[in-house]
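Per your request, structure below.
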């Protein structure tokens, strides 16, 4: 060791220098490389001048002050996030009490009141969400849980016969026949594995895999005229997360029976074009600059809207945000789906104005993951669903009327 070597050479006992001799101008151990600025230079180098030592002390103090400032800022940020989270949880808890004790027991009388509509806009508490969605969507089709069981057993029979024949040709022949769309049962298997893959609950072996399979299978047997269409699995999955199995099926079938959903899922081109035309009326009204930018690239709404409408935003937006969109969609109907689309365009208007056709299409197909509900909903709130004093329903009705009159004028029977 150094001590023994010293003693052997000099014959004197080694005494370490006192701490004050080692570090004249530093009263603590350096906590980081930053503190090295205060150290004396090694003995073989010229000592620091007084000015340099003072400058270094000043630089060090500034660094420490900056670090402290950053730390305080971070702590404030963390506190703010926690405060907002607690506030949000308090709001959800108090809203839940109002929904459970006041609104749900008096649903028909209260659903359209201003107070309930405002509370609804804030987002439904997760514990009552499924119940409110069911009531708002309604059950015009009068489906009972028993009817669901009947169609589910029919779907199970189909699956069984598919696996028994296991002949690909048979399956292709059946799916080619328009009269029997139940063959789209095979498509379901493929699509389920792509539904909310990051949640891992709908994939094979996951807790909700069979449930999603059942609801979709029963629907294809209930509505062979519609069959299974890609995108449906996302809608059914959101319902399954919020409702019991039979209730999820009832809401699913009724939701898909609404005019807008029926038009899209049956790929009724003329109806879809009406929806796009109505959307463009409000697009031009609300975002004229972006509207012209899209027009200059011949970028039509079908490029991004189809995916949004098919999955009711559940594939495009984070799940909790998609559920909040669903909340107001259940309150306001199809109009809100298009208003949400305009809200998204408004939120990203500045970015989109800098982009060309390809980049816009890519951006709108895969929206940023950090999209927050506060920002999106303030943009949606700013969208005016009124054009020359006409609301969405009136604009859409006049487009339908124009179409019918156009059909009459073009009808050969009328001309002869």
């Amino acid at each position: 060791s150094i001590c023994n070597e010293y003693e052997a050479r000099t014959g004197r006992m080694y005494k370490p220098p006192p701490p004050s001799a080692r570090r004249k101008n530093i009263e603590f151990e350096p906590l980081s490389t930053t503190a090295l600025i205060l150290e004396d230079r090694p003995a073989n180098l010229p000592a620091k001048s007084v000015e340099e030592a003072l400058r270094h002390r000043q630089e060090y103090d500034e660094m420490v002050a900056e670090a402290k400032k950053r730390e305080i800022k971070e702590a404030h940020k963390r506190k703010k996030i926690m405060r907002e989270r607690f506030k949000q949880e308090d709001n959800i808890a108090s809203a839940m009490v109002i929904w459970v004790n006041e609104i749900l027991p008096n649903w028909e009388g209260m659903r359209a009141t201003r107070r309930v509509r405002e509370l609804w806009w804030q987002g439904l508490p997760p514990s009552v969400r499924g119940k409110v969605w069911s009531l708002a969507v309604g059950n015009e089709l009068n489906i009972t849980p028993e009817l669901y069981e009947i169609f589910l057993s029919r779907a199970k029979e189909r699956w069984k016969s598919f696996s028994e024949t296991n002949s690909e040709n048979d399956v292709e022949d059946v799916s080619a026949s328009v009269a029997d769309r139940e063959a789209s049962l095979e498509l379901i298997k493929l699509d389920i594995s792509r539904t909310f893959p990051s949640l891992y609950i709908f994939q094979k072996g996951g807790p909700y895999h069979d449930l999603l399979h059942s609801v979709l299978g029963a629907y294809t047997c209930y509505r062979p005229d519609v069959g299974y269409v890609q995108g449906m699995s996302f809608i059914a999955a959101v319902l399954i997360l919020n409702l019991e199995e039979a209730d999820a099926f009832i809401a699913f079938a009724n939701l898909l029976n609404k005019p807008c959903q029926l038009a899209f899922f049956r790929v009724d081109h003329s109806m879809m074009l009406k929806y796009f035309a109505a959307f463009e009326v409000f697009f031009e009204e609300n975002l004229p600059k972006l509207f012209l930018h899209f027009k200059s690239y011949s970028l039509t709404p079908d490029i991004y809207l189809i995916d949004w409408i098919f999955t009711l935003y559940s594939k495009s937006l984070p799940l909790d945000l998609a559920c909040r969109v669903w909340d107001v969609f259940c309150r306001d109907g199809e109009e809100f789906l298009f208003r949400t689309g305009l809200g998204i365009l408004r939120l990203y208007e500045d970015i989109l104005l800098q982009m060309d056709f390809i980049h816009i299409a890519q951006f709108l197909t895969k929206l940023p993951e950090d999209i927050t509900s506060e920002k999106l909903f303030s943009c949606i709130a700013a969208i005016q669903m009124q054009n020359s004093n006409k609301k969405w329903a009136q604009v859409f009705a006049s487009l339908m009327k124009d179409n019918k009159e156009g059909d009459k004028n073009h009808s050969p029977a009328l001309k002869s």
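Confidence is low (pLDDT under 50) at residues 23-28, 169-176, 410-416.

Regards,
D.
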